[in-house]
């Protein structure tokens, strides 16, 4: 098993390399570069940058070099943890991403947890009470979560929050706790702000999991070992929760690997709508403004997260299902 | 005697008195009749704002002109400088603890006295604003606008003293001597002297590793100016030829923004930055550290502004700027400014969130990025949010202006675009009233002008020239231009092909996009085939610069003092989209681009004359001629202008004028003296 994991991790490296090259090229495809978009932005909102200043910046940032030179400049810093320089923020990329990535992981992780904690019990309940009105009701709720886009839910939440509850707009902490060091009140405040975004983000995935869980469990409940267990006199609860669910849950773990990209991109959109300091808004701006190193590093990080997530899902599956052996 | 009539204009009697007095003063002050030497401007403060409604004709001196001593700003009651000073309570505490010198020692010998707009204020409070990212630097930068000279509050008044208390041109106008206030100090207590100006010029502006070529405003006839310090307070700038734009540039670019994106600046903290400059510190091999330390948002860097950045880290959610204890301005009662303790500009991810904050009352005073489409919502929520909504006319000649590219490369379209009758026809076909009503809540002004009436260069006839809605006239003009209507009612070129126009904009939604769509419909209504193409700003911009756009849409801002960057008035550089190639020719001084003909060449020549003259009246006259050329030739086709900037101000936030023109060249709201804004305690 260990060799398997090591092999998978090593296989990630060429993939990441390919991803980095591709993203670097694609980001630079639109005409112009960071400085022209800067000039355009400035001109639009009041401001103007003259040619001499632009030229100075172009040389300073190395944007006058051919693309492969820029790529090498970026990549050569990787071993030392230097992921390049963000032109827009005028700070090293690693400084910028660190905090944002942290929040994004927390948000996505909690959303994933939420999805699971909600969907699995509901799925089990639905399966055991098939076709009852509770089943139909819960399934409908799940589908509502699936069909209403998360940005829509985000906007509704924002509207209700501001106009009904007078909550402040945006951010993951209240203004007064913003720059305070971490403490229990700050964590609680963070939890408070994260509650609804987590629910919104998780809502979409819930329906899918409910249906899958329900379907799998129904199938499992028809298996012979379940009948045997019942015949042997085990309480229904034990039969379902301890034995049937364990078998039914396997496909779900695989599905989790597929869920990750949705979660991360969903967090992106939600971050923009709700003005959360996650990777989403920063990433979007970097792409639009051709802040090449920042955008490239983001994509690289997200790809790495994805692959690690898949690996984790596979390992989890092997742990949960003794029939699976990796070589 | 009421100096102002009911509408805020000077009444005739006081006008005559003022002119008479000013002329008398002028006769006394002028050295010789031929050389318009600038009078030494004392620390007389600008008159408190009168609403800038006076039409250009009635004011004697031209707007932001300076050397004419007929300053409408010199009221007889030139404020007697206060001699006793007080300071904010927190600073007084620090003085008691011995951590700060007393206020008399912190202020310069001649602090600038700022007249409050409403009343003398109270200390305290945090000013909350919002911005969308570091590229949105103006959201912070304009509130701390602090330059060698200052733009006045009222555009009809001359340029005001700033860090320099007086200035003087030599008789041949080739030398400008600036005298700084004695005893100015940086925010860390070190003296501010002409060394800081020299450092900026010699080690930043002229250092090729930081600036490939010196700032163009200080290069006349290919020669950069010479800067020499005559004393710690006096500096002399020497130009190869008279520099008529010098004073405007000192008010505009003479800020301390040397190393953010816009590379403005006229001074930099030498005592702090020298240690990071490779020229002075041999241990350094590149300029990376210097760039970081000299950046305007770096908390370690001393500044001359009313608040200085005390917190800005990657991952921060807000720029926090606190009171500068060495700020060099006071109010007439001797209180050291600023009144407000702290500035907190919060980072939002999207301007929609910013607008929601404004609606929710979380923003104390801002107009930047407040969307006019939210106007009704803001009005509805003002009770709830405890704020008032002001409409400040924006110095935008036309919110939606069309530029017909006369240097366009298309063989068929080029001669058509260059035909004035064609452009006139396009202009007559536009229903401007409908655009105003639909897109701007009828809050704008239907006009063809590039400038707004408050500008000293405004020529009133240009507003209505070709601006009437007359589709029949448009049709007849198209015929005169050699087009013919085909059987399906679509206009065809002389080669029999239908004429197809592509209007390009970078907006994908909002008022400007809707307005452009209405223009497109108007043109289709008279039989022209028109297509609207919108792309992202970042891809639109380089294409427009590269002469690839036939009909570009943009707003014409800087409509108050256009000549510091006159891209919409004349083909100044490749951002002048009615003739980018001519702009290239002018900005490269003939090295590339297309040579201008006829009126464009004339306009450029007039502009050169304007730059070389230090006589305000002459500059205004030349400027007006250029404006008239632009209007007659329809280089810039305007639709609806002077759309107000929606300003949200909390009800307890005072000393904000009811009426002001917002303009980026004027660094609004910087020219309104944010240091005198205050929170009124109930």
What does this structure look like?
- The complex is a heterodimer of chains A (327) and B (682).
- Chain A has 13 helices and two strands.
- Chain A has two domains: 2-93, no CATH class; 96-320, Orthogonal Bundle (MetI-like fold), CATH 1.10.3720.
- The mean pLDDT of chain A is 82.
- Chain A is mainly α and 327 residues long.
- In chain A, strands 1-2 form a two-stranded antiparallel ribbon.
- In chain A, strand 1 and strand 2 form a beta hairpin.
- In chain A, 37% of the residues are buried.
- Chain A is globular.
- Chain B has 682 residues and is an alpha+beta fold.
- Among the domains of chain B are: 146-294, Alpha-Beta Complex (Dipeptide-binding Protein, domain 1); 401-641, Dipeptide-binding Protein, Domain 3 (Dipeptide-binding Protein, domain 3).
- Chain B is built from 20 helices and 27 strands.
- In chain B, a hairpin with a 4-residue loop joins strand 9 (226-229) and strand 10 (234-238).
- Chain B is globular and about 90 Å long.
- The two termini of chain B are 34 Å apart.
- The chains are: A mainly alpha (327), B alpha+beta (682).
- At the A-B interface, helix 2, helix 3, strand 2, helix 5 and helix 11 of A face helix 9 and helix 17 of B.
In short:
The complex is a heterodimer of chains A (327) and B (682). Chain A is 76% helix and 1% strand.
In terms of topology, how is this protein built?
The complex is a heterodimer of chains A (327) and B (682).
Chain A: H1 2-27, H2 34-45, H3 51-61, H4 67-75, E1 85-86, E2 91-92, H5 93-128, H6 133-147, H7 150-163, H8 184-221, H9 224-231, H10 236-248, H11 250-274, H12 279-289, H13 292-320
Chain B: H1 12-29, H2 89-96, H3 103-106, E1 112-113, E2 126-131, H4 138-141, E3 149-150, E4 160-161, E5 164-169, E6 175-180, H5 194-205, E7 219-220, E8 223-224, E9 226-229, E10 234-238, H6 246-252, H7 270-273, H8 288-294, E11 307-311, E12 318-323, E13 329-330, E14 342-347, H9 351-359, E15 365-366, H10 375-380, H11 382-385, E16 387-393, E17 401-404, H12 413-417, H13 420-429, H14 432-440, E18 445-446, H15 471-480, E19 484-485, E20 491-492, E21 500-505, H16 510-525, E22 529-534, H17 537-545, E23 551-554, H18 580-587, H19 598-612, H20 616-633, E24 640-641, E25 644-650, E26 653-654, E27 678-679
Parallel strand pairs in B: 1-13, 2-14, 21-22, 21-23
Antiparallel strand pairs in B: 3-4, 5-6, 6-10, 7-8, 9-10, 11-12, 12-14, 15-25, 16-25, 17-23, 18-24, 19-20, 26-27
Helix pairs in contact in B: 13-15, 14-16, 19-20
